[in-house]
Design brief:
Elements: E1 8-12, E2 19-20, H1 24-37, H2 52-62, H3 69-85, H4 87-93, E3 95-96, H5 100-108, E4 113-117, H6 123-132, H7 153-168, E5 177-181, H8 184-193, E6 197-200, H9 207-212, E7 218-219, H10 225-234
Parallel strand pairs: 1-4, 1-5, 5-6, 6-7
Antiparallel strand pairs: 2-3
Helix pairs in contact: 1-3, 2-3, 3-6, 5-10, 7-8
Length: about 240
């Protein structure tokens, strides 16, 4: 039986919070897009903090295409296959971000903390990305929410809370979770749902950008595992 003592569920973002793909991610998206639509991807819709389903739909519009859910599911399968095919290239060109492994390990040793993922990536791709860099060993995937689950980031947080409630066997409120992410979209989703937030200025957005979006707890990276663990348990 799951422990009834769990009191914090950490909702990790993936890209630019825990890892950097070194440009491989966009290349694989382009490969999957062409495999799905038959058209080379000339440009991609804005991706920061957006779910994969929305990125695919909006990128398709940029190419004059109207797509369906079936089209997205084919794209998701093609994207997963591309990541499997290119996992060695991803490992060679990308990297886990500074402090990511240490803070995941630190939180895993913290009583009553469960770690999962809330990401715009589809679940299979998120799993591949974290596995490639050895960052998946503490993630409880059943509690998370992914790019195929909802269009809006705040809805992903809600899905994760519901799944964590079911998986862990206790009623969780927004105050029982903590979002850790690197974009204003992560910030706004946490604020909308009422989940405490730790913003990490390790991606395309500065600490000032994240504070302007409403984040009060901001770090430049994940290297201070003790500070992050303190904020998680005190959130």
């Amino acid at each position: 039986m799951p422990s009834m003592a769990v009191r914090r569920v950490v909702l990790w973002d993936v890209d630019h919070t825990l890892i950097d793909t070194g440009g491989v991610g966009r290349e694989l998206s382009a490969r999957a897009f062409e495999r799905t639509t038959g058209i080379p991807m000339r440009e991609q819709a804005t991706i920061d903090g957006i779910t994969e389903a929305v990125i695919f739909r909006e990128t398709s519009k940029l190419h004059g295409l109207t797509t369906t859910r079936d089209d997205f599911e084919k794209f998701a399968e093609a994207l997963t296959a591309a990541h499997v095919e290119s996992s060695e290239e991803l490992r060679a060109r990308g990297h886990g971000l500074a402090g990511a492994a240490a803070v995941l390990d630190r939180l895993a040793r913290t009583p009553d903390v469960t770690q999962t993922v809330v990401s715009g990536n589809v679940r299979a791709v998120a799993k591949i990305k974290l596995n490639v860099f050895g960052l998946d060993r503490h993630i409880v995937w059943e509690c998370g929410a992914y790019g195929e689950d909802a269009d809006e980031r705040a809805d992903l947080v809600r899905v994760a809370l519901r799944r964590a409630t079911e998986h862990l066997g206790r009623d969780l409120t927004p105050q029982d979770a903590v979002v850790i992410g690197d974009t204003p979209a992560d910030v706004s989703a946490a604020l909308e749902v009422g989940v405490p937030l730790i913003a990490v200025a390790s991606g395309r957005f500065s600490a000032e950008d994240l504070r302007a979006a409403g984040a009060s707890r901001v770090v430049s990276d994940l290297r201070d595992a003790e500070q992050i663990a303190h904020w998680v348990t005190a959130a």
